[in-house]
Task: inverse folding
């Protein structure tokens, strides 16, 4: 009998090992110690994860504010403002690549643990769209404001209108105009959205996204990043997910909402991100967008377990927690990519 019980325990650990492949340490460590339990009773919190290298300075700021007692949304906003104001981050806020008419147009959203959301899209002339999105959440009966209406709202809230096109981005745009071919360079012209997910000290999930979108897009184009369910989604009972990459592909598949839904059905953050990335690949392998398609997801569940996964190599994300501080992790991917 005890042999049979040992066998069942080992079999359970084997299954756990498979489902923990590729996502962060906790389940794997517990498996090695032989103390893994499902569902896990240990929750790793607080924890903040965000996309790409500029996620690291953003995470540090968010962490500082969180530890100083700020609310989750205020901490997320503070962190996301760092890449928004950085002219060297060419796909977020100030300094972002413009559209094909030379206009910098911005998309952002924010969501809290009670499923309150605020979003702005096709917003021009405002340095911090994440802050405007937060005001939409807090001060309007709506979820999403677009274009001129979003700008009007921002101005009424006291935001200042300014020119976000830097001389460097203007130069690159003029160079692009010479050929005017829309074919964003993978990991360069279709990345850099910052998406951030948080499990706070109370065990509540929240998240945000901000971007200037795909470089050289058509004027008026809106990507996945401000769309709740595409660029960002969370369900406080389950987990949170966010996307980066070619927004059209993420919208077509309701990417982030699907990652969360798979976690609800019991998948690990890694398995959920991988499955949706593969679904996107399958739906696009004969599609015109495939030649420049990159998508990546990050996900965080209620236990504080996290993962990232992308279609093509080169995607990484920042992680901050009490145990190991701030660091970058490389996401696993479906296919390698050499520029
Ligand atoms: C978009 N998802 O507008 C964004 C682009 C991006 O990292 O930068 N993603 O399609």
Result:
């Amino acid at each position: 009998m005890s042999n049979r019980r040992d066998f069942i325990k080992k079999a359970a650990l084997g299954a756990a090992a498979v489902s923990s492949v590729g996502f962060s340490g906790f389940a794997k460590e517990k498996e090695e110690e032989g103390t893994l339990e499902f569902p896990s009773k240990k929750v790793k919190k607080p924890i903040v994860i965000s996309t790409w290298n500029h996620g690291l300075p953003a995470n540090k700021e968010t962490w500082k504010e969180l530890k100083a007692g700020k609310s989750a949304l205020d901490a997320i906003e503070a962190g996301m403002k760092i890449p928004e104001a950085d002219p060297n981050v060419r796909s977020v806020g100030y300094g972002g690549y413009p559209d094909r008419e030379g206009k910098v147009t911005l998309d952002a959203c924010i969501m809290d643990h009670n499923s309150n959301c605020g979003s702005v899209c096709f917003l021009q002339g405002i340095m911090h769209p994440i802050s405007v999105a937060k005001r939409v959440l807090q001060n309007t009966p709506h979820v999403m404001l677009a274009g001129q209406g979003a700008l009007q709202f921002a101005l009424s809230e006291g935001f200042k209108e300014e020119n976000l096109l830097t001389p460097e981005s203007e130069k690159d745009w003029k160079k692009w105009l010479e050929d005017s071919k829309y074919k964003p360079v993978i990991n360069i012209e279709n990345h850099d959205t910052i998406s951030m997910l948080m499990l706070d000290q109370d065990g509540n999930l929240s998240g945000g996204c901000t971007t200037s979108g795909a470089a050289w897009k058509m004027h008026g184009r809106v990507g996945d990043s401000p769309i709740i369910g595409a660029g960002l989604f969370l369900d406080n009972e389950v987990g949170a997910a966010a996307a980066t990459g070619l927004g059209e592909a993420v919208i077509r598949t309701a990417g982030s909402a699907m990652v969360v839904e798979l976690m609800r059905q019991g998948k690990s953050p890694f398995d959920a991100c991988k499955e949706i990335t593969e679904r996107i690949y399958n739906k696009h392998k004969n599609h015109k967008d495939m030649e420049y398609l990159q998508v990546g997801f990050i996900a965080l569940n209620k236990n504080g377990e996290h993962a990232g996964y992308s279609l093509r190599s080169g995607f990484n994300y920042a992680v901050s927690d009490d145990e190991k501080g701030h660091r970058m992790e490389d996401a696993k991917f479906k296919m390698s990519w050499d520029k």
